[in-house]
Input
Amino acid sequence: MIADKLYEEAVKHQGVCVGLDTLEAYFPNYLIEQDAGIDEKLWKFNQKVIDATKDEVACYKVQIACYEAYGLKGLQAYSKTLKYIRDNGKIVIADVKRGDIFSTAKQYAKAHFTGDFEADYITVNTYMGEDAISPYYDYIKNQNKGLFALVKTSNPSGVDLQDVKTKDGKRVYQQMAQKVNEWGSSFRGKCGFSAIGAVVGLTYAEEFENIREDLSHTFLLIPGYGAQGGTGEDIAKIFKKGLCGVVNSSRAIISAHKGIDESENFAQCALDSVIKMKEDIGQWL
Amino acid sequence: MIADKLYEEAVKHQGVCVGLDTLEAYFPNYLIEQDAGIDEKLWKFNQKVIDATKDEVACYKVQIACYEAYGLKGLQAYSKTLKYIRDNGKIVIADVKRGDIFSTAKQYAKAHFTGDFEADYITVNTYMGEDAISPYYDYIKNQNKGLFALVKTSNPSGVDLQDVKTKDGKRVYQQMAQKVNEWGSSFRGKCGFSAIGAVVGLTYAEEFENIREDLSHTFLLIPGYGAQGGTGEDIAKIFKKGLCGVVNSSRAIISAHKGIDESENFAQCALDSVIKMKEDIGQWL
Output
């Protein structure tokens, strides 16, 4: 059960998840100067970061959009990155936020839980309801896979729809939280959490109280730490009843070297940032 | 302005949009027997369908999930298919339903409006609010691109979230409809419709009255015709004040040959289905 493995890794590493939202702008100078294609450069960059950090993190989250932006070559690098993380025995969350009707979601499940783009977890958008995730259930049961469904996102306009009040005085995101918890109830591991988790943005740590009970068996993927403004103290509010998720930081880790170390040893800066993040979160646990 | 071109094509062809949700199960026997990779087979299948139908349809919608499911090879076929449609002067809607925070949506915009995966329109999921589409605005203004945002989907569990009642007695999907119309107000063409359109499922033709006014300047992408149960009469209800969208049919068109013509002339069956669909819709216009 993937939820147990992720929980265990999270406890061991203060919930730290490194986001490989790799952009050309983050490349160290030595890599920029190399005579290689974008596929090769994206891949080499990620490989260095993974090698440097893999013994210190709970998991990786790879943002597919950063690779799709480079077309087929970008997706070659994406494929190699996922495979490398898994070959190193680490958990990879593919941040794909797919969501569609049943027959299409079946294709997405095949796409991201088998073959070139196989991940351990994927993020999903369930605006379309349970049909958007039920095709994944077989993979959860039989292939040791997991999901994180969007509940409350950390971006400014997340409120446009998610914060609309419903007639029983709740918010749309609370409705979503309840649904996600309900869908996940058949997939709970020994740790008590389901393999169907929820994405809950860190910039809303206070508001998390509104959905804490609804998500009592739902493991969280928490974006927003670091470059997006979230702190260890915010995490402490979410973790006050115990560790219940992984905390993603991307830019603050994978661009930490810029202007400091532009050599092929750049990934040492990523490791330093990971250690700092672990200490920041660890002090509250 | 892409909205004007799509409107014009829709008027000319009774709004018919062919969905290239291509699956191996639809391959005619002659193609199954060919000694070629899946990339080649997907591409050849689509090419035949496009060649046969392109003079009779308003546009094509390509469901990326069907290609992602075959990994990198599938996406090669996807890329070639989009390029071929555009090279033939036809409009292609990439059904990708992407949606993410601003910085990530910027990457998706680059991914699907430039390079290997360039489309004219893409579908987007705006559960995350305006941030999820504002990075596309530059492409709409300067590169002749357009969007269709999910409002009301045609799948059974679409109601899970979309039909939740809000405190002012409306439904979540109505809130989404208003937002989409508002976001689109700066991008209206001569035809009166915006380049930011909405996906509204055909199985909810009656309910469309709840959002008709909210979407008065919003062009529609209407899935659900044919294999999903929607009829020309349903379309008539939506079009009663004039044509206001394109109507997608996939399986009923691209698998029409199965058991009837398994030769390399199979795509004639697709054309026949298109003609039938045009007559079915045309009688109500």
